[in-house]
Design brief:
about 525 residues, mainly beta, Pectate Lyase C-like, 15-stranded parallel β-sheet, 13-stranded parallel β-sheet, 2 helices, 45 strands, about 5% helix, elongated, disordered N terminus
């Protein structure tokens, strides 16, 4: 299946290398497992070091480079010591070819690569694995740790291949991960500038790319990480959650592709979602193949989060559905799930429930999305439930969306649900005890049941170009579509799914008709 995100991700990588031409390294250290010797100086390709131990026992200075011979392999753990500066970061890379250098921890260390309490590092073009004889708690491919450190600045992880990490599958503080960042200790610590870009992860358990931040209690120690960017990564066959920002303000998650998540864990997991984060922007991602019904969605707006935006994403074939919106009852350390915006996204053949609304989310705006369900599917569109006793959502606003049930499919627009455990639910028409649910100027086409009052609703064929396709271009509008200029104005001068500026009354759906 072709997607335009891959091309954009390639373009992005050239603008984000983090290394400028006027930076001059103080020292370059060469490492070659085949021809090197740790008694060498390491300062030339003809006199390289041999082992990870030599690197681990060294403290590096601003501007230093550690270059591995391309295609060489190392068993053990790489630990990076010393810090660079904003002008002179320390760089890890390869030389003498294009094949990545391989580091295999083989389950003998918690992680294959560790950066603990260091700053201004750029690490790229390594292959890392950590596959032991059996699963073990707290096993990772890459770990970046700020422990009693305060602000930890600028860590760049780029073009890494992280695979086969058989960490703990159960959701816990000990769960495994491919690329993992963490804060710990009693002194508040956080990251300022963490860049995970153009990496490839496969078969990492439990998770793909995620953080754990202990300083996220709103009333006690709210010290979020800043300038966290997760961009242009490919994640395939992830055991649990694929991408999970944790404890951030202003995180950016864009141009990532997820093909298969929750493939091995037996508890709750989803594709891309923030936790304890404010002002997260999640855009231009493609998520497919998330398995199961505990949660199993492509995307999730979770709790202790404010002002999360999901836009220009492509979700398809996720067993648990497109989007989860959820929170338990707020308290002094949990602000709930407030101010989520879900706009200009495309969902194709996402199963079970399109929008799964669990608990007391507030002020959620869902507009200009295109939702397609194909032959034989029976899907709940807005699936309302409680998280705890009488904890229902307030303020769900559905504007300008296309809800399209193809021949042989059923789309149940409004359902209330009751959990029966193990991901099973029973449901019936209605909002339950949810309040302030507004539907306006949406398109309902096909076998669409339990439709709420929609004063500007359209009950005609929206005339998508080629519905049922997996080519995103086919979900544009025919020039004769009744959706053209038929939407309500939500925000002036916004872009549609393809970046075309929308002014005045928008077309209904994620894509403006080509002018």
């Amino acid at each position: 299946m072709k997607t335009y995100y891959a091309l954009i991700a390639i373009i992005v990588c050239f603008s984000c290398s983090g290394i400028t031409s006027n930076q001059k390294a103080e020292r370059i250290f060469y490492v070659d497992a085949d021809t090197g010797n740790d008694s060498n100086s390491g300062l030339s390709p003809e006199s390289p070091w041999e082992s990870l131990d030599k690197i681990n026992s060294s403290v590096f200075k601003p501007g230093d480079k550690i270059l591995f011979k391309a295609g060489t392999g190392y068993r053990g753990q790489l630990v990076l010591n010393g810090s660079g500066t904003i002008e002179l970061p320390i760089v890890v890379d390869i030389y003498g070819g294009r094949e990545k250098a391989l580091i295999e921890a083989e389950g003998n260390f918690p992680e294959a690569l560790l950066l603990r309490n260091v700053e201004y590092w750029e690490v790229q073009n390594l292959e890392l694995s950590n596959f032991g004889p059996y699963r073990e708690e707290s096993r990772w491919g890459v770990r970046v740790l700020a422990e009693d450190f305060g602000e930890m600045n600028h860590i760049g992880l780029r073009n890494l291949y992280v695979h086969d990490v058989n960490g703990w599958l159960k959701k816990s503080y000990e769960e495994g991960c491919g690329i993992y960042w963490e804060t710990s200790g009693s002194k508040p610590s956080w990251f300022n500038g963490l860049y995970i870009e153009n990496c490839h992860l496969t078969r990492t358990d439990r998770n793909g790319i995620c953080g754990r931040h202990v300083f996220t209690k709103r009333a006690e120690n709210w010290n979020p990480s800043l300038n966290v960017v997760i961009r242009g990564n490919l994640l395939v066959d992830i055991g649990g959650d694929a991408i999970k920002p944790w404890g951030c303000d202003g995180a950016l998650v864009e141009y990532n592709i997820v093909r298969g998540a929750r493939t091995r864990c037996d508890d709750y997991a989803a594709g891309i979602w923030p936790w304890s984060c404010d002002n997260t922007l999640i855009q231009y991602n493609e998520v497919s193949g998330v398995k199961g019904y505990k949660d199993g969605q492509g995307f999730d707006s979770d709790f202790n989060c404010r002002n999360t935006i999901f836009q220009y994403n492509y979700s398809h074939d996720n067993e648990g559905g497109f989007m989860l919106i959820c929170t338990p009852k707020p308290d002094e350390n949990n602000v709930g799930c407030v101010g989520t915006i879900i706009r200009y996204n495309l969902s194709v053949n996402d199963h079970t429930r399109t929008f799964d609304i669990g608990g007391g989310a507030k002020d959620t705006y869902i507009y200009n999305n295109t939702i397609y369900v194909g032959n034989g599917m029976d899907v709940k569109l807005a699936n309302y439930g409680t998280w705890g006793e009488d904890n229902w959502s307030d303020g769900m606003y559905f504007y300008n969306n296309i809800f399209y049930a193809d021949e042989g499919a059923t789309l149940r627009v409004v359902e209330r649900t009751k959990s029966l455990g193990d991901g099973r639910r029973e449901s019936a028409p209605g909002f339950g005890k949810s309040t302030n649910n507004i539907f306006k100027a949406n398109v309902y086409f096909g076998k669409v049941l339990n439709v709420p009052d929609d004063p500007d609703g359209i009950y005609k064929d929206p005339m998508l170009l080629k519905p049922g396709s997996y080519n995103i271009m086919d979900y544009g509008l025919d020039p004769n579509s009744p959706c053209i200029d038929a939407g309500n104005i939500i925000i002036d001068k916004i872009n549609d799914y393809f970046g075309r500026q929308v002014t005045g009354n928008p077309d209904i759906g994620a894509m403006e008709v080509k002018q």
